[in-house]
Amino acid sequence: MSDSCGNPATETEALMPRRRKFDKTKICVKCKTNPGSLIIRHAVYCKECFVPLTTHKFRRSLEPFVNAKPDGPRRTALKPQGNLLVGFSGGLGSTVLLDLVHRYYVVPDKALIQDDGGSHHPRHERVWKRVVVGYVEVCDAFPSMVERMSDVRAIMEGYGGFEFVPLRIQDAFDPCWWKKIGRDPVNLGVDMTDEALKLLRLEESTSPLEAMRSYMASLPTTTARSTALQTLTRVLLQYTAQANDCSHLVLGTSLTSLAVSLISGVAHGGGFHVREEMQEEWTADQSSDREVDVAKKATKRHGLRIIRPLRDVGMKECGAWSWWMGLKVVGRENWEWPGFKPGIGALTKAFIVGLEKDYPSTVSTIVRTCGKLSPKGIVEGKCISCERPIQSGIQDWQARISIRSRHNGDEQAPFEEVAESLSPFLCYPCRITLTSRSTRPILNPFPNSNHDVSLTPLPMWTGRVLHPPKTSGSEEGDAEIVVGRTLARSEMKNAVKEFLLQDE
Ligand SMILES: [Zn+2]
Ligand SMILES: [Zn+2]
């Protein structure tokens, strides 16, 4: 037997030999004079070279998308169409992002900018007229989590030059917040006892806090809960950006956290959103952002660009930046519900962070590989829950493969029924979030609150379902509501007949 046919189980590192932590030398690979202080993917850098390297990566991921017409290496000045919103979570990545935004676009740091200035540098003119920082406090979604609002406010005051917009996760369920940003509130709810997800119009009786907790409590798994929190946070920031006339929203997702969200997103059925997970352009009242009329785009204002400028900067580099710049990381607590098993997100994070320690290049390989993917399928509108594109045809596909439990329709719902089913308005991962069942019974993380799973409140933006946006080219009244139908038993049998076992 030749060597190459050995048993991989006994040769654990046969495929990917662990490399030495750094290649050849301990001297900085850039200047080749200073002793190195940090190893980034096998290459050694000194502090003096690390700073311009990181700022270069930050600007390379952001600046080509600032002007309306995205470009490569830029020759013209940066002229965004609107303001900038920085999404701040208190975590390491967003702490570093906030610092970089401040040094580059709020109060230009001469020491930093001089070395790589160049003629096009935003030294003289302010790029964004207003730089707004949005912080979404999520502590109320957990039974006992420390609130960080005052710490975050102190950081903003320490910097100066930022406008601070404090938000709470329950704002997503708050008609007053929705009104404040110039929209008409409608209270919708969903019957989560039935997988058909009947859509109801609720009376405004619960507080936003109770509504949010009732929504969280109704979700079937830990994965669903943390996915929902992530989505609520992102969409709250998107609408805040729109209300503040922002053309750009930047998030502090590092290379490491991007790899985590890509892998866990795919594991949770979000493969169709791989592109959005990296970067997306969003318009509040457009049915789909992927099919933008090119001619219109040239003259009109572009949608909100959601950019992750640290997508090439790993967690370790963020740590080094915050240490050398003396930044205070308020910290983001782990999203854990006591007594519940960790969800896909937490497990993926543990896996990726561990992988990055021993095989530093794999994390950027994950991100680069996902960057090359372009999901198949046509976009069929926009999901009313996560505001991302819906893949065409999943409704039929799911109707074919699902074994559903249905309730008998005898009982009359106490509220007006808006639609027989919410499903046609949801993307696949959002549908999974609402309906996937865990093997364990669902426990309420807030045992003291009483909530009714058959009347689960929905975030304010889902009210959009009542006013379907006009798609370009279609006449008014064309907006079609597609509702799934129940298959007849014979049809069901036909669809699965090749998988059925013969009766003995
Ligand atoms: Zn150096
Ligand atoms: Zn969705």
Automatic annotation (TrEMBL):
Gene designation: NCS2
One BP annotation, GO: tRNA wobble position uridine thiolation
UniProt KW rRNA-binding keyword: no
Main location group: cytoplasm
Function field: Plays a central role in 2-thiolation of mcm(5)S(2)U at tRNA wobble positions of tRNA(Lys), tRNA(Glu) and tRNA(Gln). May act by forming a heterodimer with NCS6 that ligates sulfur from thiocarboxylated URM1 onto the uridine of tRNAs at wobble position. Prior mcm(5) tRNA modification by the elongator complex is required for 2-thiolation. May also be involved in protein urmylation.
Name of the protein this chain belongs to: Cytoplasmic tRNA 2-thiolation protein 2
Keyword tags: Cytoplasm, tRNA processing
Location(s) in or outside the cell: Cytoplasm
